[in-house]
Amino acid sequence: MSRRIMMVLLTGTLALVVTACAEVREPSSGGGGEQEGPIQLAVVPKAVGFDFWEQVEIGAQCAAKEAQGGEVEVQWDGVTAETDVSGQVDLLTNFTTQGVDGLVYAATDAKVLYDVTEQARSQGLTVVNIDSGTDPQPKQVPVAATDNVAAAEDATRLMAEELGPDGGEVAFIPFQPGTATNDTRAEGFKNVLEEEPQLELVAEQSSESNYNTALEVTENILTANPGLDAIYAANEPGVLGAAEAVRRVGKAGDIVIVGWDTAPDEIQAIEDGVVTALVAQNPFRMGYDGVNLAVQGIRGNGQLESIDTGATLVTQDNLDDPKVESILDPSCGNKPPVTEQ
Fold first, then answer.
1. Does residue 102 sit in helix, strand or coil?
2. Is residue 23 predicted with pLDDT exceeding 80?
3. Which of 26, 75, 242, 335 gives a 20 to 30 Å CA spacing to 15?
4. How many Cβ atoms sit within 10 Å of the Cβ of residue 129?
5. Helix or strand or coil: residue 238?
């Protein structure tokens, strides 16, 4: 089924469900109005089961705990695969019809999920995106996320420095073309390739945000390109699959790997010298700031503004930095700082 047909079917289904089941509320500029008393929020990641999203949940629950002006309850749920767009649509639609006051979510597909946002807002809900927004992004819907383009540029420049003036052959492992996060990380990477002609892109294959797929894809790339010098992987499964493939062919430390996210196995790969650098986002802050923005919108406390939650390049040299440690292992009692590019 084509994406266009899927979008039409999902949009039509969503409209029917909302019309039949939801109580219609009057929309406001922020989506929610000026509500007092308890607040119910649905916080929905792209998928559950990843270290990154677990840190988002910690931040979201912390913000709910600290919220002023009444009790804030966070209902956390998600699909099991970031590629399950229809599953996320169904989940968000169900939350909308159950009478929550707001949605805080990371869009698995920028275009498809725009319709979910608009349907929720038409019911009077406040909507906030975290990590990944929609296309288009409504001006009334803020995004708490990394500046993926800038962070990708920084990571790719570091890769170029590691390879030296002669450059070399580079492979790119995206994870889900069509998501805002994937596409902006690709944009930043390719911006630097244009600046650094000594870097030759010889392969580009998607991991589909799956470790086993990333492993297989990287093995195929290494077979087809025995002189490969570097790999840029756009998320956690891609990094882990690439690292394992490089280990298996005995080239750990010889091939530069830069990528995204900071799951424990990724940090171990840095300590082992298999991975050179990782873009550490601030998932705790995404959850924390996302919930705070939603509460602000529901309480009617002014215009909601998007937040750059920052990014830090993690290498062997700064693993013991207290600032980096707070990002890698956040808690409500030890909140990571808002980092700068």
1. strand
2. no
3. 75
4. 27
5. helix
Residue 33: predicted pLDDT: 56
What digits encode the pLDDT tens for the residues 216-271? 999 999 999 999 999 999 999 999 999 999 999 999 999 999 999 999 999 999 99
DSSP state of 149: H
Those residues with Cβ within 8 angstroms of residue 299's Cβ, 6 or more apart along the chain or in another chain: 34, 35, 36, 69
CATH of domain 148-280: 3.40.50.2300
Please enumerate in sequence order all residues whose Cβ is within 8 A of that of 9, keeping only pairs 6 or more positions apart, or say none. none
Q: Do domains 3-146+283-309 and 148-280 have the same CATH topology?
A: yes
Predicted local confidence at residue 341, as pLDDT: 37
* Three-class DSSP category at 146: coil
Q: Domain 3-146+283-309: which topology? A: Rossmann fold (3.40.50)
Tens digit of each residue's pLDDT (9 = 90 or more) over 284-298:
999 999 999 999 999
Lowest model confidence (mean pLDDT) among 15-29, 105-119, 182-196: 15-29
What is the DSSP secondary structure assignment for residue 332, as one 8-state letter? Answer: T
Q: Which of 1-5, 87-91, 155-159, 287-291 has the lowest mean pLDDT?
A: 1-5
Name the residue ranges covered by the structural domains of the chain: 3-146+283-309, 148-280
Q: Check residue 211 and give its pLDDT.
A: 97
The 3-class SS string of 36-83 reads CCCEEEEEECCCCCCHHHHHHHHHHHHHHHHCCCCCEEEEECCCCCCC
Q: 65: which residues sit within 8 A by CB, 6+ positions away?
A: 332
At residue 16, does pLDDT exceed 80?
Answer: no
Q: What is the per-residue burial (b if ≥16 Cβ within 10 Å, else e) of 34-72?
A: ebeeebbbbbbbbbeebbbbbbbbbbbbbbbeebeeeeb
Q: What are phi and psi of 231, to 5 degrees?
A: -135, 135
Which ranges constitute the DSSP H helices of 98-147?
A: 110-122
What is the per-residue DSSP string for 252-276?
A: BTTBEEEEE---HHHHHHHHTTS--
3-class state of residue 145 by DSSP:
strand
